[in-house]
Design a protein that fits this description.
It is built from 7 helices and no strands.
Length: about 190
């Protein structure tokens, strides 16, 4: 009734592990299948990897970032003009407690997520193009690791939002570095 489930409440670490692995598996498998489909119809090109990452990350940025900011703006305008009828007191209190940091961090996270989606697309693109399943598996693992700080924050295992975002930034920079190394090792040019 309260939106929780047995695994979430009884074993939050196990729930976090399930959540990050499921996200990695499903998103990277979708990417893999799309690249396989494209490769059967045309020669894969670097722009396919970048385009897929921009599309995936861009729609997330739009739906999770921009729409959230618009929602904040609309509700804050309603509160400022005294039109609070129909708004719950919880929503009003949440809006009144917002700080610039609490508004900026989700936007920052969405921008990092956009970059990560491009990087993961490159891993899966090369997995298909080079017929290297290990790169696909690594994309799943990296996806899970990138999602880990947010899941730990959601499960209240991490309690500091700024620390959570800094861990995410560090993991994303490591992924960027390893992606550049992997591209060089695979003899690809023009991906990053």
């Amino acid at each position: 009734m309260d939106g929780s489930n047995w695994l979430m409440t009884s074993h939050p670490y196990l729930y976090a592990l399930y959540g990050i692995l499921a996200a990695g598996l499903f998103e990277e498998t979708a990417r893999f299948l799309i690249f396989k489909y494209l490769s059967a119809r045309q020669t894969l090109q670097n722009r396919d990897a970048i385009g897929y990452g921009l599309g995936h990350g861009g729609i997330e940025l739009l739906l999770l970032g921009v729409l959230q900011l618009l929602n904040f703006l609309l509700i804050s305008q309603m509160i400022a003009s005294g039109q609070t009828e129909g708004l719950s007191q919880i929503v009003i209190k949440q809006m009144e407690s917002l700080t610039p940091l609490s508004i900026f961090l989700p936007v920052f996270e969405r921008l990092i997520a956009l970059a990560v989606q491009i990087l993961l697309s490159i891993w899966v693109y090369l997995a298909v193009k080079k017929k290297r399943v290990n790169l696909y598996v690594m994309a799943i693992i990296w996806h899970a690791l990138i999602d880990l700080p947010a899941m730990l924050y959601q499960e209240k295992i991490l309690s500091n939002m700024l620390l959570t975002e800094l861990i995410l930034l560090g993991a994303s920079l490591l992924l960027w570095f390893l992606t550049k190394r992997m591209i060089k090792k695979e003899g690809e040019k023009g991906l990053i």
